[in-house]
Amino acid sequence: MSVVIKHLHERNDSALVMVHVSWSRNMSKPSVVKIVQEFMLKANRPYAINDVVDGCGKDLGKSAIQKSLDSLVDKDILIMKMYGKNKIYFPKQNTNTAELKKDVFLAKQKLAQVRQVLKSKENQLSEMQTKLRSLSKIKTVAQLEEEKENLMDDIRNINERLRHYEAQEKEAKLSAQDVKKIEAKYANVSTAYRKRKRICTDMLDAILEGYPKTKKALIADIGLETDDDVGFKIELKR
Asked: Where do the Homologous-pairing protein 2 winged helix domain residues begin and end (predicted)?
């Protein structure tokens, strides 16, 4: 005997489960009670007699199915409730308590394994995202080649300017005789500057002897400009 559970159709908005029964020539016909019990426990929902007949197959006979339902009620496998004139049958929920506990335990184990795998995958994803962010900051070969060309251009320009400055320095290089002439001229100018500054200072001191104001006021009245006023600073050759 083989029993196959499959969805057949909907009746009164409730999904029915059809038990297709087939017998081989060398096997005995299973008991109706066993078929009805398997159908009800598999479905695990309330059914009226007509629903059970449709689900188990009309070839079993409505009367035999009714007797099987009553027998299962007597065995405390099914529960019967009256709804109006209709008898409604459904499995006693503690019938498969041990099996349900086992299923729940296995489901929890599987859930824990799945969560562990998920956490591992999330960690891998996080690592890959970190690597991706770091890789995104790395310049491409094309960008590096472009930067290399720009740097080579800068180096060529700097070398060209350096050669130009060296050539100018070579052309502008003074001989020892030229240096002596410049130093002598500088010394003469320094001497003349000190001499004229001393003359101006002596003149101011002579005027101050009969001037009623300060030296600073005298300079302002005359309209003179000192070295500090014009920002003149020079290292004089002595």
From this structure: 34-90
Cβ partners under 8 Å of residue 217, min gap 6 = none
Rounded to the nearest 5°, which phi and psi values hold at 78?
A: -115, 160
102-141, pLDDT tens digit by residue?
A: 878 888 999 999 999 999 999 999 999 988 888 777 777 7
DSSP state of 88: E
Contacts of residue 92, defined as CB under 8 A and 6 or more positions apart, other chains included, come to: 76, 77, 78, 79
CB 86 within 8 A of CB 48: yes
pLDDT at 212: 85
Candidates 174, 176, 187; CA nearest to 235 is: 187
Amino acid at 145: E
DSSP structure class, residue 60: G
